[in-house]
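Example (one chain per record):
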Amino acid sequence: MTLQVGIVANDGIVIASDTLANRSPRFNLELRAIQQFFGTSKLRVSADGKVVVTCARDMIQANRLAEALIAGLSPEFWQSPGQKMQEIVMSEVNRQEQWREAECLIALSEPTPSLYLVQCFKETEETVCLPITNYIFAGNCHNGSTFWAMRYCDSLAPEFKQIETLIPIAAQIVVDGHALNSGAISGLEIAVCDGSGVRRFTEAENKKQYANALKRSDKIKSVLFPKRRTQNSENG
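Predicted structure:
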C-alpha cells in the first residue's frame, strides 16, 4: 500500500509520499509467508532534475513505468506531454507478459511546472493519463487523511497557494495516513518542482516535516478536546 499526494501551487508542484513497501513472490502461494516490509524511496527523478515520478500500486511495475516515463519524456515533449505519456505507458504494458497495476504522479518543471496522473490497472485494458489542476492522490486514495486537501486546497486564497505554504498540508496527509492505516503506510519523503527543476528534501528535512505534522495533530486534538480544569485547580 502507498499514499502519495501531488498539489499544484501557483509557483510549482508539491509531492509527498510514504516510504513503506512490501515484497512477496506473488505467483507462488507456498512462499507468501516470506513477505517482507521495508522502507524505500518511491520517487524517481530524472538525471537533469527536470522530471519527478512517483511509484504506487505494484512497486516493481510502477518502478519500470517510472523509468520508462523519465527516459521517454525528452524535452521536445514537455510542451504537451499527454500523448507521449500514453504511448510510453501502452508500450510498457505491452512489453510485460502479465501486467498487474501501476500508478504514477508525474511533475515536469518546464516549460511551466505541471502535474499529471497515470494509471493502468489489470481490471481494464484502458489507461488513464490526465493533467491535474489542483491536487491528486495515488495509492490509498480513500484514506481519510485526504480530507485535508479536499477541505482546504480549493478554498485557499492565492497568496497561500505557494509551494512553501502547501508543503505542511502535503506532509500532514501522509503522516495522518499512517495513523489511519499504520500497517501499510509509513515514513515521509517530499519533493518540490518549480521552474528551476526538482528538489528532493533531505532525510533531515523529511524528518522535520514529519515531526511538525505530529505536533499539528496534537494541537488539533487539544482544540477539539481541551483539558478541563479540575475543581481543585479552580479553587487553588
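Caption: The chain has a mean pLDDT of 89.
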